[in-house]
């Protein structure tokens, strides 16, 4: 199910986890799974599945975009540099990540202002409920799906939605 975005989620500048601007132009025309991540969460092992998706579908026009967030019980207190080292050394992540962002509240990043307008499978839009919530952005910039934290990267419905929006 495609839900038109008000604007493409990637039209506003983002800063990469490693500093400097994130190349959002490189996301244009790709299917992107945007995930707010945290290193001290019970869902942190999902990094492994996210990296597996990146490896499996990356050459077909897909990218995971990790978005560290410390808004949920302060489960991402590390610096950007520490997060980058942890994700690389512990989970072998190769997908791009932004600097730490707020996904809810008055400081909500514009990326999430667009994403949170989209309802999940139960029809609930609005605030991100917890770490590792997932939003699938189709190559045309529409938000094609939203899954809450308990949905793993291996979930058949998530994978089917991803397959449906892959370019080509």
Automatic annotation (TrEMBL):
Which InterPro entries does this entry report, sorted A to Z?
A: Glutathione_peroxidase, GPX_AS, Thioredoxin-like_sf
**Catalytic residues (UniProt):** 41
Keywords of the record, alphabetical order, are:
Oxidoreductase, Peroxidase
Q: Which GO terms describe its biological process?
A: cellular response to oxidative stress
The cross-references to SUPFAM superfamilies, in alphabetical order and at most eight, read: Thioredoxin-like
Enumerate the PANTHER family for this protein. GLUTATHIONE PEROXIDASE (PTHR11592), THIOREDOXIN_GLUTATHIONE PEROXIDASE BTUE (PTHR11592:SF40)
Protein's recorded name:
Glutathione peroxidase
């Amino acid at each position: 199910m495609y839900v038109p975005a008000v604007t493409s989620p990637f039209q506003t500048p983002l800063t990469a986890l490693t500093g400097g601007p994130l190349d959002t132009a490189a996301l244009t025309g790709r299917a992107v799974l945007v995930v707010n991540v945290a290193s001290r969460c019970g869902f942190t092992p999902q990094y492994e599945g996210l990296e597996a998706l990146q490896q499996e579908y990356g050459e077909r026009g897909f990218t995971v975009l990790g978005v560290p967030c410390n808004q949920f019980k302060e489960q991402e207190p590390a610096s950007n540099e520490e997060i980058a080292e942890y994700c690389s050394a512990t989970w072998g992540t190769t997908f791009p990540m932004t600097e730490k962002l707020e996904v809810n509240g008055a400081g909500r990043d514009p990326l999430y202002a667009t994403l949170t307008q989209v309802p999940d499978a139960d029809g609930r839009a609005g605030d991100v409920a917890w770490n590792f919530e997932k939003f699938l952005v189709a190559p045309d910039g529409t938000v094609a799906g939203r899954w809450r934290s308990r949905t793993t990267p291996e979930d058949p419905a998530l994978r089917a939605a991803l397959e449906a929006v892959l370019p080509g």
